[in-house]
Hints:
Elements: E1 3-7, E2 12-18, E3 23-29, H1 34-49, E4 58-64, H2 68-85, E5 89-93, H3 94-106, E6 110-116, E7 122-130, E8 133-143, E9 155-158, H4 161-164, E10 174-178, H5 185-197, H6 220-224
Helix pairs in contact: 3-5
Amino acid sequence: MRILSFDTSTEYLSVAAGDGASWSTHLERAGSANSERILPAIDTVLASAGWQLADVDGIAFGAGPGAFTGVRIACSVAQGLALGAQLPVVPVPTLLALAQEAWRDHEATRVFACLDARMREVYVAFFVREDGDWRVEREAAVIKPADVQTPPGVWDAEGDGFATYAELASLQGVARAHANTLPTARAIGELAFPLFERGQGVPASQARPLYVRQRVALTTAERNAGARL
């Protein structure tokens, strides 16, 4: 099975194409240029893999939570490509992708995933890896940093929330923090692979973002003050 995956939920644009054994990847800090850069990056990664879109069996994308605009970009591109090529889609939670990346990069099996949610809040979730799969210890939520509490046990802290709010790394049970861990497209593809194999991909029209925070716009005063969603 051949999978195309991508994520634009953070400042980084990540794209991957793989068959479970090998992956071609692209990663760049595109920021607000994500919408302009994603299709050329997809073309580059497919070419690196020696594929065309017609050779792909499924598309996975980072569904959020994350930057609202970025999450919408990834979902829209996944829907557009999948609709045109008649491919199934798997939306993958970005906080779970953080856990997967942390496991592959430094063998983390108990992950406190945290992304900066702007507006003085963070997206958080807790995952435990058991028998080759991830169990959700605590569901994704958006919360003020001062209100974050860790479940019992020892945790690896992963994600840019720990760069913005360094004090979170001092919470009870946090053993180490990796603020540079990203929800990469390869991690998304790895998580989506067994779902595609089990026939759990959805039609393009059913692919949806996972916002967690439902607010999608700022007030004029917030925009003038420089707030960002």
